[in-house]
Design brief:
Helices cover about 35% and strands about 15% of the residues. By secondary structure, it is of the alpha/beta class. The strands form two sheets. It has a five-stranded mixed β-sheet. A three-stranded parallel β-sheet has the order 1-2-3, with no helix packed on it. The structure holds adenosine monophosphate, fe (iii) ion (2 copies) and zinc ion. The site of one fe (iii) ion (FE) has 4 residues, from loops.
């Protein structure tokens, strides 16, 4: 069995349609996949699942903790539940309002037509995120590449980094649990937390009802995997892992090609299916 429990499609900021993502997953011998688009489960609408792969309901909720953006992955919930539907609807509205604010700040910084540009990059205004603004800024020559757009305008603490709009993490975990799912703290190493802060977050996450920790997110240093395995044991969390795949051509987050997960950890999917 091979699991990839973190990846994106065109329903958020990924490049592949859900159907193409599942085809690629089959080519990569993935047996179980969760599509975890940012704040949406639209990829699951009328999704035709080809034989040979199990699709587990997933979502990656944006949130904020101690003035830092954090991501909470929800897995194996009931997509029809009111709790998840309301959570997603709340964030859809928040994302729309946030996009307008980001656009107005970028316009002040001199970016031409940021709102229309981001919509064009996203192929519609259904789920605008910072990567769509970054792509527009590259397309109109305002910056050289997406990484520069994040470094100067969209990344942590820059003008386009707006995160007050999201539901708090306690509420997000409650949505996932009310829908019968498992809440997983996504890629903790990306939050640049001190050890003290990370332990505070993990303690709080357990108290809110969080049950999982992403111990592998794409390609990462062995030291990071070892640290996260340690925190997983220490806080009695279950391990989850995935690629955080967005598009082909990014070897550090390529579908199914994540670093080797640590052995001997209990995993989020234990008890989800018969026989594992
Ligand atoms: P948003 O959902 O609007 O907060 O955007 C978050 C997404 O932006 C992440 O999931 C990544 O796909 C992307 N992202 C974050 N930081 C960077 C970066 N430094 N360079 C490129 N993409 C980034
Ligand atoms: Fe993303
Ligand atoms: Fe994320
Ligand atoms: Zn992600």
């Amino acid at each position: 069995m091979k699991f990839d429990l973190h990846c994106h499609t065109t329903a958020s900021d990924g490049a592949l349609e859900p159907r193409a993502l599942l085809q690629l997953a089959l080519e990569r011998n993935i047996s179980h996949i969760a599509i975890t688009d940012h704040d949406t489960i639209a990829a699951y609408d009328q999704l035709e699942v080809p034989p040979g792969i199990t699709v587990i309901p997933g979502v990656e909720f944006s949130s904020q903790w101690c003035r830092r953006g954090i991501h909470i992955v929800g897995l194996n919930f009931d997509p029809a539940s009111a709790a998840i539907r309301q959570g997603v609807a709340r964030h859809r509205k928040a994302r729309r309002e946030r996009a307008e604010k980001i656009a107005s700040r970028l316009a002040k910084a001199g970016v031409p037509n940021p709102f229309e540009g981001a919509i064009a990059q996203a192929g519609g205004d259904h789920n605008l995120g910072r990567p769509h603004f970054a792509r527009h800024m590259v397309a109109c020559g305002f910056v050289g590449d997406e990484s520069e757009a994040f470094k100067r305008y969209l990344g942590n603490g820059k003008v386009g980094d707006i995160r007050e709009c999201w539901a708090g993490p306690e509420e997000v975990v409650a949505w996932i649990r009310a829908a019968g799912g498992t809440a997983v703290l996504a890629h903790p190493e990306k939050y640049q937390l001190t050890r003290t802060r990370l332990t505070a977050l993990l303690t709080a996450f357990r108290q809110w009802g969080g049950e999982g920790l992403e111990v592998v997110s794409g390609r990462q240093l062995p030291r990071v995997t070892a640290d996260l395995a340690h925190w997983c044991n220490r806080y009695e969390l279950r391990a989850s892992w995935g690629s955080d795949f967005h598009r082909p051509g990014q070897p550090w987050s390529d579908l199914g090609n994540y670093s080797t997960p640590p052995a001997n950890l209990s995993t989020v999917w234990q008890g989800w299916f018969e026989g594992c």
